[in-house]
């Protein structure tokens, strides 16, 4: 098993580099880079999409002549300002002749602007990321790690509670449906979870706001935020109650659609195990139905469900529901990723992609270890 884990860990490096390389290359063809964003804001447009002129990434296609016609909104701005923006964003550098001792500037005849090739920019970025140096956000003047830490409580709350509630409800419900397969209980619960799965999360969130958050009927829950304004003045019990009060509706909205898959997976796993020979043998020995179900069937049937818990948690945790966060005015990783992509805030985009990609690959290894822990008969070391 040790050799298998070592091979998987070694595969993390090229896999992560491949993920970063593909996404980095794709951004070079996306219109409106960070330089365009700054120019659009200076022009009062507020958003680069209102003034895209057909160019690609601001770092692509830089010339050494210093022309600014490629930038929509650059008219009337001094070329030195554009040069400084390109240098700050890492798309260009100022190269001076040997022996030059002054401040590097394109105004000096001994210096010139030089575009940094895409491959070199990618190498510099990955070298920094290997040291876990993710730089600062282009537009927020805060390090990427600090920015992620700032948004983490919301994502932890939604991801952790949604996953736990889904498992705590779906597994017992799936077992009950398997035991009563074909009964009226099975039929009605199947209809209920299918309806829940069919309702879009954002639509259910709006319904919850309208009914329970002062929309038109009751005002039992707060409309926005993760905590109240006087949260710091509350007692420990008061803080816990206030937190749960705020998170109740967002968690319910983000969990409703996850019940169906997990419940039906649990039911089908149990049904498959119940029909096997070892269950019939256990019953023939006189074991009680409860002993057969939870002493023999449960461990085998729960292999797929429980072993996938790390991957499910990470996907919910880092997926971040943008719409749910927006509806309930929660500032989490979902909104952070969307805003960074729109603003072309590349340090945030690639920094979070690197961290979450690395965690996702490691969690994949943990899922395999969970399989072995639950069922020692599984041996990844000897599989072909």
From TrEMBL:
Cited InterPro entries: MetI-like, MetI-like_sf
Membrane topology: Multi-pass membrane protein
Pfam families reported for this sequence: BPD_transp_1
Keywords: Cell inner membrane, Cell membrane, Membrane, Transmembrane, Transmembrane helix, Transport
Subcellular location: Cell inner membrane; Cell membrane
Keyword hit for DNA-binding: no
Biological processes per GO annotation: microcin transport; transmembrane transport
Superkingdom, natural source: Bacteria
Record's GO cellular component terms: plasma membrane
Positions of transmembrane segments: 158-179, 191-218, 243-266, 301-328, 348-374
Domain ABC transmembrane type-1, chain residue ranges per copy: 152-371
Family, per entry: Belongs to the binding-protein-dependent transport system permease family.
Protein name: Binding-protein-dependent transport systems inner membrane component
């Amino acid at each position: 098993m040790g050799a298998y884990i070592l091979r998987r860990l070694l595969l993390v490096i090229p896999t992560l580099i491949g993920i970063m390389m593909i996404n980095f290359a794709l951004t070079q063809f996306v219109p409106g880079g960070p330089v365009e964003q700054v120019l659009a804001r200076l022009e009062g447009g507020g958003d680069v999409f209102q003034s895209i002129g057909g160019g690609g990434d601001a770092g692509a296609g830089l010339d050494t002549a210093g022309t600014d016609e490629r930038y929509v909104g650059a008219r009337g701005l001094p070329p030195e300002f554009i040069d400084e923006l390109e240098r700050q964003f890492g798309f260009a550098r100022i190269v001076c002749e040997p022996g030059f001792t002054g401040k590097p500037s394109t105004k000096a005849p001994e210096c010139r602007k030089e575009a940094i090739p895409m491959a070199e920019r990618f190498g510099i970025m990955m070298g920094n990321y290997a040291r876990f140096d993710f730089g600062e956000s282009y537009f927020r003047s805060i390090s990427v790690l600090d920015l992620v830490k700032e948004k983490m409580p919301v994502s932890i709350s939604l991801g952790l509670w949604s996953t736990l509630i889904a498992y705590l409800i779906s597994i017992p419900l799936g077992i009950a449906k398997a035991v009563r397969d074909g009964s009226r209980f099975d039929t009605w619960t199947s209809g209920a979870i299918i309806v829940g799965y069919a309702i879009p999360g954002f639509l259910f969130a709006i319904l919850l706001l309208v009914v329970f958050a002062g929309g038109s009927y009751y005002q039992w829950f707060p409309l926005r935020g993760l905590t109240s304004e006087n949260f710091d003045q509350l007692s420990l019990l008061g803080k816990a109650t206030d937190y749960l009060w705020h998170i109740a509706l967002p968690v319910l909205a983000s969990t409703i659609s996850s019940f169906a898959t997990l419940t039906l997976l649990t039911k089908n796993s149990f049904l498959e195990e119940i029909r096997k020979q070892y269950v019939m043998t256990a019953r023939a020995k006189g074991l009680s139905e409860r002993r057969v179900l939870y002493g023999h069937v449960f461990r085998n049937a729960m292999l797929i469900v429980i072993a996938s818990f790390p991957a499910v948690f990470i996907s919910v945790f880092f997926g971040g529901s943008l719409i749910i966060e927006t509806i309930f005015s929660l500032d989490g990783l979902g909104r952070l990723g969307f805003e960074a992509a729109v603003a072309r805030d590349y340090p945030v985009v690639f920094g979070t992609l690197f961290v979450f990609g690395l965690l996702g690959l490691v969690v994949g290894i943990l899922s395999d270890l969970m399989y072995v822990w639950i069922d020692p008969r599984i041996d990844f070391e000897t599989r072909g």
